[in-house]
UniProtKB/TrEMBL annotation:
Main function: Epoxide hydrolase involved in the biosynthesis of cucurbitacin and mogroside tetracyclic triterpene natural products (e.g. siamenoside I and mogrosides IV, V and VI). Cucurbitacins have cytotoxic properties and exhibit deterrent taste as a defense barrier against herbivores. Mogrosides are nonsugar highly oxygenated compounds used as high-intensity zero-calorie sweeteners; they also possess pharmacological properties such as regulating immunity, lowering blood sugar and lipid levels, protecting the liver, and acting as antioxidants and antitumor agents.
Subunit comment: Homodimer.
Protein name: soluble epoxide hydrolase
EC number: 3.3.2.10
Class of the enzyme per the UniProt entry, highest EC level: hydrolase
Species of the source: Populus alba
Catalytic activity, as annotated: (24S)-24,25-epoxycucurbitadienol + H2O = (24R)-24,25-dihydroxycucurbitadienol; an epoxide + H2O = an ethanediol
Keyword Transit peptide in record: no
């Protein structure tokens, strides 16, 4: 890990931390992390892909790690997030018109937006865990979630500023992260007040999974203790604002080459109609250049860490085509 370069970049009006490894002349892979993570969740991919001839670029996204976290909720819209990435690429890859993108969780959502807004900057995409979500012009996103799953559904519980932060502060950063990173239920995620995930007792014993060492977990814990969770939670608080802002893209397709990977034990595969969306052909309709779709057996949400070697091979094999 010591061989990874860490840089501070000024982009889109904020200061961003970015981890970089690989030759300056090598094709760039931009890695986008999710919640509750950071650049560090791509540690295995950064090392592997840079050794295979690519330049790995993995920022802490807005609100995370050592990147700025603006105070205003309205500073975390899809346009801000994609704008950060375009600004970042203009600094670290000024001579590359297009780059490869690999993303997970919220990073995957941002990657879909990036492909809608700036397909001219994306050579090909390996997206994981979160499917493309076509905009429903009839109903806002959070309203749809409440109708489907009720007020205790995690994205609904995240909406009110300060509420979850207060509960998380009472519970402690280490316990919160351990709950989120060890969660492995193939279905919707609920956060009942005064209880753990899906109603588990708050003192239920939690054991780190085999793919997450104590050292790795300590890195995440230290960063979230410094930064807090508000930045990451603000992404969820812009779900309806993003719905409003993206009205011009209603019915738009993702028109870059895509490989999509998901675990069959991922909550995203087993909720919000994810599996049906794939099986019915809806996903292929909305992402017409979907070239490969991989459903990994026995794998949960954090697949890029849980099955790092397999994910590295999937990324390399796909990008080699280009």
């Amino acid at each position: 890990m010591d061989s990874i370069e860490h840089r501070t970049i000024h982009a889109n009006g904020i200061t961003m931390h970015v981890a970089i490894k690989g030759s300056e002349n090598a094709p760039v892979i931009l890695f986008l992390h999710g919640f509750p993570e950071s650049w560090y969740s791509w540690r295995y991919q950064i090392l592997a892909l840079s050794s295979l001839g690519y330049r790995s670029v993995a920022p802490d996204l807005r609100g995370y790690g050592d990147t700025d976290a603006p105070a205003e909720i309205t500073s975390y819209t899809c346009f801000h997030l994609v704008g950060d990435l375009i600004g970042l690429l203009d600094v670290v890859a000024p001579n590359e018109d297009k780059v490869f993108v690999v993303a997970h969780d919220w990073g995957a959502i941002i990657a879909w937006y990036m492909c809608l807004f700036r397909p001219d900057r994306v050579k090909a995409l390996v997206n994981t865990s979160v499917l493309f979500i076509p905009r429903n012009p009839e109903r806002k996103f959070v309203e749809t979630l409440r109708t489907l799953y009720g007020d205790d559904y995690y994205m609904c519980r995240f909406q009110e500023p300060g509420v979850i932060e207060a509960e998380y502060a009472e519970r402690g950063t280490e316990r919160v992260l351990k709950e989120l990173l060890t969660h492995r239920v193939a279905g919707p995620l609920f956060l009942p007040k005064g209880k753990g995930l899906n109603g588990a007792p708050l003192d239920a014993p939690l054991v780190l999974p085999s793919w997450l060492s104590e050292e790795d977990f300590k890195y995440y814990t230290n960063k979230f203790e410094q930064k807090g969770f508000t930045g990451g939670l603000n992404y969820y608080r812009n779900l309806d604002r993003n719905w409003e802002l993206t009205a011009p893209w209603t019915g738009a397709q993702v028109t870059v080459p895509v490989k999509f990977i998901i675990g069959d034990g991922d909550l995203t595969y087993n909720s919000l109609g994810g599996k049906d969306y794939i099986d019915s052909g809806g996903f292929k309709r909305d992402v017409p250049f979907l070239e490969e779709l991989v459903v990994m057996e026995g794998v949960g949400h954090f697949l890029n860490q849980e099955r790092a070697d397999e994910i590295n091979k999937h990324i390399y094999d796909f990008f080699q085509k280009f």
